[in-house]
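Q: what does this look like with coenzyme A bound?
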Amino acid sequence: MAACSTGAGPGSAPAGQVLLRDGRSVAIRAAESSDLPDLRRFLAGLSLQAKRFRFFSGGVDPARIAGAIGATGPDRFGLVALDREGRIVAHALCIELGAGRAEIAVEVADDLHGQGLGTILLERLAQEAERRGVRRLVAEVLPENREMLEVFHDGFDAHVTFHEGVDRVEFPVAAWRLAAWRFPLPPSEPRPADRGKGDANRR
Ligand SMILES: CC(C)(COP(=O)(O)OP(=O)(O)OC[C@H]1O[C@@H](n2cnc3c(N)ncnc32)[C@H](O)[C@@H]1OP(=O)(O)O)[C@@H](O)C(=O)NCCC(=O)NCCS
């Protein structure tokens, strides 16, 4: 089965409310085409450094990039994290490369770094990729992007090789279980609508 390309709709990706390290709460759900305007706003608000780390250029045009990374299609799916006001504060993307491999990338709002959100999004992206038949995940990371490399290393035991100025990261999709085991989430306060449905932090 082709990676990230089943007929399953975006709503099938792992969703829910999660509590971050500092007690803030975010909602994670599948990205949708209607997210484009807010994705544009979110990308425009990232620091130059974050844009450079994510897109290998600080001078990217948020409108163009949002259209490219927010596009839905049979070979890709994304996740967004929303704050209490419903604004996007993080986004992650998985794109099918064929032969059971998929490329992943993530960006988190600058003021939310170090709260576990990047790890959680990658974990859930991998979980959904596995469900869609992906076996291995890859990413390209600038060697100076220590935060990203540490997340891949600490959470997913990723293998890293340096090639043509870029660190190429690779790990089996099943490694999301490692990250879930290493960084268990604190239980979140159930929203009134969730009461009786079990743990909203369920991975
Ligand atoms: C790289 C990036 C995505 C990491 O996201 P993040 O949310 O800051 O990463 P995390 O918080 O998950 O991981 C960072 C730290 O939290 C820890 N952590 C992870 N999950 C956790 C959890 N559930 N609870 C507590 N701590 C956790 C990690 O061990 C790590 O600890 P350290 O700071 O002591 O090393 C973010 O820095 C970013 O958006 N950078 C700019 C864009 C970019 O570089 N994208 C990558 C392109 S490939």
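Confidence is low (pLDDT under 50) at residues 1-12, 191-203. The CA atoms of residues 44 and 62 lie 5 Å apart.
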